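HUMAN: Forgive my ignorance: could you write out one protein's sequence and backbone structure tokens?

ASSISTANT:
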Amino acid sequence: MKNSLTLLTSLLSLFLLLSSNRKPDTPTATAADSLQVRVVKTGLTMPWEILWGPDNMIWMTEKAGKVSRLNPKTGEQTTVFQVPDVKEGNYGGLLGMVLHPQFAQQPYVFLVYNYDAAGKFKEKVVRYDYRNGTLTNPKTLINNITGNEDHNGSRLLITPDLKLLITTGDGARQNVAQQLDSLNGKVLRLNLDGSLPTDNPFPNSPVWSLGHRNIQGLVLVGDKLYGSEHGPNTDDEVNLITKGGNYGWPNVAGYCDDNQKGETAFCQTHTIIEPLRSWTPTIGLCSLDYYNKSQLPRWRNSLIATSLKASRLLQLKLDPTGRKVVGVNEFLTNQYGRLRDLCIAPDGTVYVATNNFGDDKIIAITAAK
């Protein structure tokens, strides 16, 4: 009895010691947050986009130009296409991809990638037909977007009214993000044939919103469009993107709170929209998706984001209106390195692509059993 009491006392002391050393700002996972991680595929080379296809396969781009389909159960990878004119750079190459929402009837695949135009780094969006297991009949929807070794964007998204949204980086030319005659530092909006919608906010322009530095995440939740954006040395952002909205870059980074740099005055004269959430120092905020599945119930009504620089997965809990981030939790910190993109299967499994410049992986995240 005495030995048992001594053991119990020791365990209690150890628990109190560990509790007292826990940093109060460190998110703490509960039993309901416990995750089970399975490696689906290894040996990949810089995957950039993963999305859940209507064939229950993961469709994937790799930066050097490969489009493939990945069996999420076996990890078997099947090459669909190699983009012939892709120009790969440090952070350029084959980037975003989206499939037509009525893929069975209209098997279109949309790709955005960098290419060489007389020695200049450019970017374009091309629509392909998916026939007999490969991509054919390329149709360029928009091109001549200034590219760079960095700051190229670019995510693609098709809205329920069948409009194509395209995020572009500033191409390392900061001032163009505020210029309506430039396609850089914007969210662009096109019809699916490349023509201009008549209800865009600026006449005869594909620009939907402006003042962006480098959006690499885009998700539509109901009627709300969210984007995740790389900041400079400060202020990675999650924004609620609205028609004709101006998000401030390069005159404003993050919130309108730096009087010495003139942010407050610029915000007042240009009606700048502040982010829902900002991170300083930056964490390399990348892709963005929305989780509302029952498998991980504490993640419901949350934005899920990947981080490159900080090597973690983030859960951003939204309030009922979707206009506020009311809590942030972090997972997989430093376990799999840089995390580039994610997609969510119908059963609630979250798939994540790493970006470690060699032997990259696709991992599957489920609730621990």
About this structure: Confidence is low (pLDDT under 50) at residues 1-32. The helical segments are 2-21, 263-270.
